[in-house]
Amino acid sequence: QVQLVESGGGLVQAGGSLRLSCTASGRTFSSHYTMGWFRQAPGKEREFVAAIGWAGRTTYYKDSVKGRFIISRDDAKNTLYLQMNNMDPLDTAMYYCAARSPRTGWNPVSDQSYDYWGQGTQVTVSP
Length: 127
Description:
With 127 residues, the protein is mainly β. It is 0% helix and 48% strand. It has no helices and eleven strands. It has strands at residues 3-7, 10-13, 18-25, 34-40, 47-52, 59-61, 69-74, 79-84, 93-100, 116-117, 121-126. Strands 2, 4, 5, 6, 9, 10 and 11 form a seven-stranded mixed beta sheet that branches. Strands 1-3-8-7 form a four-stranded antiparallel beta sheet, with no helix packed on it. The radius of gyration is 14 Å and the shape is globular. The model has no long low-confidence stretch (mean pLDDT 96).
């Protein structure tokens, strides 16, 4: 089993920045896990935000966050990050960290591709 705990959410004004963290624990977790960030706004479906391959070799982003958000990982600390810059009120949502155990068939943008999820951290961007 793998446990994921997000932190770093909060209230920020439009144009501001936040950095989310997700710390993983569990006997099987390793740098070979692929990981991602998803978000869900009230009344909307959960959507893909960003993903990162093992050892950070590849990254993927939702079009609307490209150039503003940066996903990264520190495998020595078992921690995933999402640096969010130039934030917009449309970024307001609950943000979730997700992880997938090493195997083929990863679709980074699909929440069905991930095995483990955190509890989420709320991000609110005021106009």
